[in-house]
Amino acid sequence: MNTATPSAQEQSSSLQGIKVLDLSRVLAGPWSGQLLGDLGADVIKVERPGAGDDTRSWGPPWLRDEAGNPTEDAAYFFSANRNKRSLAIDISTAQGQSLIRELACKADVLLENFKVGGLKQYGLDAESLLKLNPRLIYASITGFGQDGPYATRAGYDFLIQGMGGLMSVTGRHEREEGAGPQKVGVALTDVMTGLYATVGVLAALAAREKTGRGQHIDVALLDVQVAALANQAANYLIGGIVPERMGNAHPNIVPYQDFPTADGDMILAIGNDAQFARFCEVAGHPEWASDARFSTNRARVENRATLLPLIRQATVFRPTQEWIVALEQAGVPCGPINRIDQVFDDPQVKARQLRVTLPHPVAGTVPLVANPIRLSESPVQYRRAPPLRGQHTDEVLADWLGLSDNELRRLKDDAVIR
């Protein structure tokens, strides 16, 4: 377990000096903000006074304080809000809107995921803020984008997984018991949208170095999900084949799925004919590799209905770990199907320090999942645990805007900030 603390290496963070104003909530936008923060940016999370990000209430489970009592913050919130400072401000007030405009004039990047036009009523839309700060990179994340017939609709991950085709290729085959469309077990479309938004922000920062100008970034969950159909989209666009649900099987590779073992299940991920031949040796059936029905991947795909039962009859006689040891020695890609607790107990996961622990003002410490990006010269830094709601309000307004204690007190008296 890696206990992360601030270090002198902060000076070498990739995005040090970049200021990000994060008006987003839930997952896609905050995921982007967290990634920018991990890379060294100063990320200010703007939250509603008294409520905060929606995901603070999406429990159980709840973070527990040092005495073991549940707090008001759900575990969900901690997945996407590391390396941020929280500013609780009421943007429905004229004073709150004025503060956001001032902050936007100091910012390099603004993230928001309001409905299309939702911030225009406050004068906080891209057009308005880019006039005030032409160098601002204004990233809008929505369900369906800034134009088109669905632009004003609300978009949620589950909805987009269905509309964007992912659920049509996820789940048991139609001919199997329990068949039907199935969502992915993680809000994957939100996560991918956060990643695409971050790529857009980095590209816009690079472009600004050349032009001196910021720009408006339009990222939509539906667009991202369609783009992320990857080979399944290509199968349809080029091959004219409408992909169908295949359970854990692969449409283009065989064998590439789960198989039963003597004590559970394992994954075989055979990507070429040489790997298949080595598997056949380990399985005690070298004749499969020379059989014209199975000798090439093209033939195996065409004859999967014949081959897969044969493989299942072989794999069921050995326990999972025995298969993994034997197949790894033969250079055949394979692995177990781990529960989440088993993931964090895996020796490779431990070796890569994918669990980090950060100090937290209420819980003492909080465990989080590490950023997977390994940069040799400007490493990811874990500077702050996900913040308490409004934890840094005074600090941020004094830091970014230079507000005095008296000015902060007046804003609190007027219920603009908390």
From TrEMBL:
GO molecular function: CoA-transferase activity
InterPro entries: CoA-transferase_III_domain, CoA-Trfase_fam_III, CoA-Trfase_III_dom3_sf, CoA-Trfase_III_dom_1_sf
Any Pfam family hit: CoA_transf_3
Keywords: Transferase
Cross-referenced PANTHER family: SUCCINATE--HYDROXYMETHYLGLUTARATE COA-TRANSFERASE
Protein's UniProt name: CoA transferase
